Amino acid sequence: MSISSKNDQNTDLAFWLKNQNASSALSQIVLAMAEAGIEIAHVAKSAALDGKSGAAGIVNVQGEEQKDLDIISNDIVLEHLKKCPSAIALVSEEVPELLINPGGEISSDDEKNYAICFDPLDGSSNIETNSAIGTIFSVLQLGVINGDYPDQNDVFAASKNQIAAGYIYYGPATLLILTIGKSVAMFAFSEVDKQFFLVQDQLTIPKTASEYSINMAYARFWDASTTTYINDCQSGKPGPRGKDFNMRWSGAMIADVHKLFVRGGVFIYPALKKPGSETGKLRFLYEALPMAMLVENAGGKAIMGKQEISGFLPSSLHQRVPVILGSKEEVEILQNLYRQKH
Ligand code: AHM
Ligand code: MG
């Protein structure tokens, strides 16, 4: 598949959204995220020249050091979402509390009140090494809002009504991977036309594969199921799996998840027996939940260790959860190990 040239129909993102019968409110939000992505890609490209590829000297709510680009990207996303009246509540990795959009207007049509949860710059530790980074977002339908504004409990409940999810990948090409329903589409940004064009309308994740992504440096902190699964993969052809596996870990979830749409495999960030990571590292609302929707709508599977995503209700905005997603058969093998060992 080529992503370097526009496809025959030259379908741009706005036209595609219209074709998919997306509501104007949802289209506006998706287009705002795409615009933000275009701006972030531009800033990221000149970050080294502008001296913006280092630490900002601030620690965020996660206890992690914020980089200049984390803060700039967050401001860019907020600026674009402010123009969307339906984006009532905003959850950002970089902001401790729930934000109420100053440009938001609660609609009497319950279906048009949304919460947008986002990680403005995924893969922060990759900024200074000029490696893959991205933006992840989830659109949740808030439904009936009791009171003047939604509170975080409304957002937690809305996590059961995720209506769209996507990520923008700032790599050699700037790509938008998006689902607003059943299928997952890929768009590439054209530097010439300054917009995203559809390059593939139905991404699928192969059912089975032989590549895994996990940070091997934490092996001593894993649970028994993860250890068995990875040991079996590493045993290769002579081992219980009867085939050889490859391993990749990019340090950015967007890049490792993107590989799933290209050649399948499994991405694992388990709970770690290590202070601060007992429930994993990745956050439910703006990392696990949107990636799970994308993966499952492409025929893959997503779980949170022993727990299913569908039965989970978060209790804090930045709640960390274990994440396992990718090719259905691989995720099921690990899920069975969880069932046996816990
Ligand atoms: P971030 O949102 O601060 O960038 O953190 C999330 C990232 C993921 O993209 C990636 O999978 C993971 O952290 C890497 O963590 P580690 O450094 O523990 O391997
Ligand atoms: Mg992230």
Summarize the structure.
By secondary structure, the protein is α+β, with helices and mostly antiparallel strands. The protein has helices spanning 13-19, 24-45, 68-81, 152-158, 224-234, 253-263, 284-297, 328-341; strands at 55-59, 65-67, 87-92, 99-100, 114-122, 133-141, 162-170, 174-179, 185-190, 195-200, 211-213, 246-247, 266-269, 301-304, 307-308, 323-326.
How do the helices and strands follow one another from N- to C-terminus? HHEEHEEEEHEEEEEHEHEHEEEH
Residue share in helices? 25-40%
What's the rounded overall pLDDT mean? 92
State the secondary-structure class: alpha+beta
Number of domains: 2
- The spatial strand order of the largest sheet comes to 4-3-5-6-7-8-9-10
- What would you give as the CATH superfamily of the largest domain? Fructose-1,6-Bisphosphatase, subunit A, domain 1
**What's the CATH C level of the largest domain?**
Alpha Beta
Low-confidence stretches: 1-5
Outline the structure in words.
With 342 residues, the chain is of the alpha+beta class. It folds into two domains: 13-200, Fructose-1,6-Bisphosphatase, Chain A, domain 1; 211-341, D-Maltodextrin-Binding Protein, domain 2, CATH 3.40.190. The chain is 29% helix and 23% strand. It contains eight helices and 16 strands. The chain has helices at residues 13-19, 24-45, 68-81, 152-158, 224-234, 253-263, 284-297, 328-341; strands at residues 55-59, 65-67, 87-92, 99-100, 114-122, 133-141, 162-170, 174-179, 185-190, 195-200, 211-213, 246-247, 266-269, 301-304, 307-308, 323-326. The strands form three sheets. It has an eight-stranded mixed sheet, with helices on both faces. A six-stranded mixed sheet has the order 12-11-13-16-14-15, with helices on both faces. It has a two-stranded antiparallel sheet with strand order 1-2. Helix 2 (24-45) runs antiparallel to helix 3 (68-81) and helix 5 (224-234) crosses helix 8. The longest helix has 22 residues, at 24-45. It starts with 12 loop residues before the first helix and ends with a helix. 2,5-anhydro-1,6-di-O-phosphono-D-mannitol is lined by residues 64, 93, 119, 122-125, 215, 251-253, 269, 281.
